[in-house]
């Protein structure tokens, strides 16, 4: 786990994961892993969506194709871990996190593409930050597993941010700051269900 990677992620994110979420994650590891599998699947689908919607953006298409394959490999790794732990993969209702970010996406191109890339960067960065925060709190098997995923997710965060910067016609920072505020609210406010990207879940 490179210090430079985690520093870049912490600098990008507007806040750290609340302790309430971390406490819940330790006590609800089955839900954590099942929803993590769903998150990897959704990440692959998101990359494929970029390929489908923006076929003329050659660099985006190439990078998203590679990313989709890697996310599906991660999905398979989580499935294998679930099987090893005798945890049944089930359907789960999604958290409000991704939808809460995407509700602010511009309907107009090319800003829509820029917004979606920024959101993807936040999702990947938050995943990395949670891997990092969970790592010292987990048993050796899970800690090693999340440690192994960290570097890949850190690359994905930087890839999406770099693409957003490349395709933006104006300065990106104002839009990044806007989504950072939305992300901070979603992470710090209380959620009614525990999910990998949920907010400050209260177990009481």
Summarize the structure in short.
The chain has 204 residues and is mostly helical.
Describe this structure as you would to a colleague.
It is built from eight helices and no strands. The radius of gyration is 16 Å and the shape is globular. The termini are far apart. The chain is 71% helix and 0% strand. The chain is an all-alpha fold and 204 residues long. Helix 6 (111-134) crosses helix 8 (173-188). It has helices at residues 3-12, 19-27, 29-53, 58-84, 97-102, 111-134, 140-167, 173-188.
* Beta-strand percent range: under 5%
Instruction: Note the run of SSEs as H and E.
Output: HHHHHHHH
Task: Quote the distance from N terminus to C terminus.
Answer: 34 Å
SS field, number of helical segments: 8
Radius of gyration: 16 Å
| Structural class by helix and strand composition | mainly alpha
Give the topology.
Elements: H1 3-12, H2 19-27, H3 29-53, H4 58-84, H5 97-102, H6 111-134, H7 140-167, H8 173-188
Tags for this entry?
204 residues; 0% strand; mainly alpha
């Amino acid at each position: 786990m490179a210090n430079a990677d985690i520093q870049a992620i912490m600098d990008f994110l507007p806040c750290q994961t609340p302790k309430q979420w971390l406490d819940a994650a330790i006590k609800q590891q089955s839900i954590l892993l099942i929803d993590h599998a769903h998150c990897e699947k959704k990440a692959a689908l998101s990359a494929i969506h970029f390929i489908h919607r923006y076929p003329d953006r050659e660099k985006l298409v190439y990078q998203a194709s590679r990313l989709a394959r890697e996310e599906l490999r991660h999905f398979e790794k989580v499935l294998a871990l679930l099987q090893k732990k005798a945890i049944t993969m089930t359907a789960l209702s999604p958290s409000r996190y991704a939808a809460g970010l995407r509700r602010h996406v511009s309907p107009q191109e090319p800003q829509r593409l820029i917004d979606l890339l920024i959101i993807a960067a936040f999702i990947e960065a938050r995943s990395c930050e949670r891997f990092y925060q969970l790592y010292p709190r987990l048993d050796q098997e899970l800690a090693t597993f999340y440690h192994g995923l960290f570097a890949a997710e850190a690359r994905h965060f930087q890839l999406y941010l770099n693409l957003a910067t490349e395709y933006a016609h104006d300065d990106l920072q104002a839009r990044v700051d806007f989504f950072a505020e939305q992300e901070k609210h979603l992470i710090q406010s209380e959620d009614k269900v525990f999910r990998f990207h949920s907010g400050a879940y209260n177990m009481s």
